[in-house]
Amino acid sequence: DAEVNEENAEANEEDAKVNEKDAEIMEEDAEVNEEDTKVNEEDSEVNEKDAEIIEVDAEVNEENAEANEEDAKVNEKDAEIIEVDAEVNEEDTEENEKEAETNEVEAEENEENAEVNEED
């Protein structure tokens, strides 16, 4: 019996050492888990902020798309105005050419009249 008791006592000592190591490991695990929890909380906050940023970006993109549509309409109107201006300029040029021809004819007539007046 004494021998068995001694063996049991030794086994119990070994168990106690193993249990002590297990307790240390569990304590370390608890610390690691605590750090992981903090990191996860921080990640959640970052993800929340990212979601807010993405939402704002989406709103800005929508506003930009609307502004681009408006710009496209303005550009289209500008193109129409430029086209009309070009037509008006073409007509003005034709009128100026006709006027220049008329002026040239009048100048010739005036010159002839001046010669006739000079002769008189």
Can you tag this structure with a few keywords?
single chain; 120 residues; mainly alpha; 1 helix; 0% strand
Question: From N to C, what is the helix and strand string?
Answer: H
Number of helices: 1
Biggest sheet overview: none
Number of strands: 0
Summed over residues and divided by their number, the pLDDT gives a mean of 97
Global Rg: 50 Å
Shape assignment: rod-shaped
Helical content class: over 70%
Low-confidence stretches: none
Judged by helices, strands and strand pairing, the structural class is mainly alpha
Distance between the termini: 169 Å
How much β-strand is present in the residues?
under 5%
What can you see in these coordinates?
The chain is 98% helix and 0% strand. The protein has one helix at residues 2-119. It is rod-shaped, with a radius of gyration of 50 Å. The N and C termini lie far apart (169 Å).
List the helices and strands and how they pair.
Blueprint: H1 2-119
Task: Quickly describe the structure.
By secondary structure, the chain is mainly α.
